[in-house]
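Example record for the data management plan.
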Amino acid sequence: MLENEIVKLGLSEKEAKVYLASLELGPSPVQAIAQKSQVNRATTYVVIDSLMNMGLMSTYNEGKKTYFVSEGPERLLELLNDQEYKVKNKIKILGKKMPELKILFNSKPDKPVVKYYEGVEGLRSVQMDFVNTLSAGDEIYAFIPLDDYFKTNLKDKVADITQKRFQKKIRMKIIYSTPNGRQLEYEKQEGKNLKEYLYIDYSKFPFRCGINIYGSKVFMIDYLGRMGGIVIENKTISDMLRMLFGMIWDKYKK
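Corresponding structural encoding:
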């Protein structure tokens, strides 16, 4: 039982056996320690050497004999405290270097960057990303399951951000689906059509996931259950989805 607990502290099974045997015997030759621990003599030499490197055992000569003695149990606590200090120091170093590591991680241009956002505040932060990363005349291409979107009241919760997007003259093209049929066509702001809608037959395309394609990013939203979404930043993916959007738009807008 005690041996199993000592192993949990980071010692190997044989290290625990030899240490406990030496602790019980006191200063002893290797043969006595090997017999007590039930570890063969050759292996006991190797294990003792390992324990000495950890500061858990020491040796001395008396006449022609060599004796090995374990350090007191307090040394185990000192060893753990030392390990704890080293781990904390490593965590501190990693914390300082984390920004540089993240830059390296995200620096490869063809490596998609994926971020998860949860709840209204998470979705608001993505809506603000529309405003912060796009310029006047840029377009957002969106798929919206209209009924699911309305149930979230998200439109009211991001109304202030939507107004900022209007002020910046960022346009939107929206493909929507609803069992209630065609409802929306245009949404004007200062005489300009900043939003244009295309209805897709719900009986054929009952999609429930929202998608926004903007710049080199794709924002995918789950309006059902626990509202949240992911942003994938990758030009190849965003360009592909933008082309698919265009194919649908061109076919059904006619």
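Summary line stored alongside the record: The radius of gyration is 33 Å.
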